[in-house]
């Protein structure tokens, strides 16, 4: 592997880096970029968003830099403040078979009901 004197950290990460950390960094950057895009679309500045979140403008700047390790709780707060999903999770669909019993009739008609929800 050819080493570059000007990229010591990059070379070290390429050789010894952790793939899970690479994935985490990519996810953090994707969330930060999506928040920045939504703010731009809504015409909302960092200071206004910080006020809405009850946070300092410097904390919002850190979030938008992509260096913040977002927790699920923080992501939920961001989604609530923005009114948009930042992470899309597919719903799990199930078909449930049930029958309705009529005391006057002994027949058991079959009905299928479509239900959706998040996997648990």
Quick description:
The chain has 120 residues and is of the alpha+beta class.
Task: Please give the structural blueprint.
Layout: H1 8-16, H2 19-42, H3 46-53, H4 57-65, H5 72-82, E1 92-99, E2 110-117
Antiparallel strand pairs: 1-2
Helix pairs in contact: 3-4
Structure description:
The chain has 120 residues and is an alpha+beta fold. It has a domain at 8-82: lambda repressor-like DNA-binding domains (434 Repressor (Amino-terminal Domain)), CATH 1.10.260. Helix content is 51%, strand content 13%. It has 5 helices and 2 strands; from the N terminus they run αααααββ. Strands 1-2 form a two-stranded antiparallel ribbon. Helix 3 crosses helix 4 (57-65). The longest helix has 24 residues, at 19-42. The model has no long low-confidence stretch (mean pLDDT 81).
The proportion of residues in beta strands is: 5-15%
Class based on secondary structure composition and strand pairing: alpha+beta
Overall residue-averaged pLDDT value: 81
Molecular shape: flat
The level 1 CATH classification of the domain at 8-82 is Mainly Alpha
Order of neighbouring strands in the sheet with most strands: 1-2
Extended strand count? 2
Radius of gyration from the alpha-carbon trace, in angstroms: 24 Å
Element-level helix/strand string: HHHHHEE
CATH architecture of the domain at 8-82: Orthogonal Bundle
The major pleated sheet works out as: 2 strands, antiparallel
């Amino acid at each position: 592997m050819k080493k570059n004197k000007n990229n010591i950290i990059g070379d070290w990460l390429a050789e010894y880096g952790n793939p899970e950390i690479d994935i985490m960094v990519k996810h953090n950057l994707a969330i930060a970029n999506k928040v920045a895009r939504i703010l731009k679309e809504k015409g909302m500045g960092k200071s206004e968003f910080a006020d809405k979140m009850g946070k300092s403008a410097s904390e919002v700047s850190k979030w938008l830099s992509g260096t913040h390790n977002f927790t699920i709780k923080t992501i939920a707060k961001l989604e609530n403040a923005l009114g948009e999903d930042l992470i899309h999770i597919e719903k799990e669909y199930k078909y449930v078979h049930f029958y309705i019993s009529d005391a006057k009739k002994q027949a058991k008609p079959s009905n299928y009901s479509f239900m959706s929800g998040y996997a648990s």
